[in-house]
Write a structure and sequence with these properties.
This protein is about 40% helix and about 25% strand. It has about 325 residues and is an alpha+beta fold. The longest helix is centred in the middle third of the chain and has 26 residues. About 5% of the residues have low confidence.
Length: about 325
């Protein structure tokens, strides 16, 4: 469902934390939007913020190491979180927590940055008894899929690109696993959207629970698909792990009257692994994983197909 842009802007304007959006492709990353909370946080009116470079801490804050980290993230198109001493327009100082998140277009290019900012001393409950939304809550809204609790695809893509680049530099093996529920459209026809969503939520909880390492990523990849990414895992290990995941999905014993494979909901999985060549892209890794998944489906579903990822067509 596409939300009305006016509704989205109204929501941002009502946010209790400072929110700034800036243009990534223009010199100095000029601000194109600043919400009302930014004027409260900094003392600067919106007219003084919009159209100018993304604001960095003033006064003595300019010499902080975090400022260089923030500027490096703007240059590299990466995510970062820093806490800096900042100065308001009236000269008063405060600890400013800044979380910078890049936004990418369909080709993977960074087009904008969103900067969430909050006064670290302003996190106490308000007098009306309601707690203000924290920066972490706002990030969780952008990061997490509401139904499954897993990462959303755009955030997964961003983290995967970061880890892929690291693996290329360090010549470290990585594995991508793509799970797809078998015959789930007929399941939805029988039990309706609500019933299918409830089942998908249970399955996502099981799959996500199988990827608990700090370096693991797990996301809702598509309507009925879940993707997982693991670093430092060989192909045979990733295949065995995927088989374990499929077994746990079967163990849920979710009745499927139109499966044609089993009495219960099952899944297929395509697994690809490689030490990323420097000329190989994340898009090619996705393509290889989808090919492996299609192979698992063609071989009868309810199984895992693993292969080495490569640049070859």
């Amino acid at each position: 469902m596409n939300l009305d842009p006016a509704l989205l802007q109204a929501a941002m304007d009502a946010a209790p934390q400072g929110v700034v959006i800036c243009e990534a492709r223009a010199p100095d990353c000029p601000v194109i939007y600043a919400n009302a909370a930014m004027t409260v946080l900094t003392g600067y009116p919106q007219t003084d913020l919009v159209g100018r470079p993304l604001r960095v801490p003033q006064g003595e804050g300019r010499d902080q190491g975090g400022v260089q980290q923030l500027r490096a993230a703007l240059h590299d198109g990466s995510t970062c979180r820093v806490v800096l001493r900042d100065q308001r327009r009236d000269g008063s100082t405060f600890s400013n927590e800044i979380t910078l998140v890049p936004l990418r277009d369909a080709t993977g290019q960074v087009t904008h940055f969103v900067a969430f900012q909050r006064d670290m001393g302003a996190a106490e409950p308000r007098g009306d008894g309601r707690d203000p939304m924290s920066t972490q809550s706002m990030l969780a809204y952008l990061r997490d899929d509401k139904l499954s609790g897993l990462l959303r695809r755009p955030y997964f893509d961003e983290l995967l690109r970061r880890d892929w680049s690291l693996a290329q530099r360090e010549s470290r093996r990585v594995s991508l696993l793509l799970f797809d529920l078998d015959h789930f459209l007929p399941y939805r026809d029988v039990f309706g959207r609500q019933g299918a969503d409830q089942s998908f939520r249970r399955i996502a909880r099981v799959v996500g629970g199988c990827f608990r390492r700090a370096s693991d990523l797990c996301a809702r990849f598509d309507e009925d698909q879940i993707a997982a990414f693991s670093a430092g895992v060989a192909l045979d290990q990733a295949v065995k792990h995927a088989e374990t995941v499929l077994g746990r999905i079967r163990d849920l014993a979710i009745h499927h009257p139109r499966s044609g494979i089993s009495r219960y909901v099952t899944a297929s999985c395509g697994v690809v692994s490689c030490v990323p060549p420097h000329d190989m892209t994340v898009e090619k890794l996705y393509e290889c994983a989808l090919e492996a998944l299609r192979g698992a489906k063609e071989q009868g579903r309810n199984q895992v197909l693993g292969r080495e990822a490569s640049n070859k067509s």
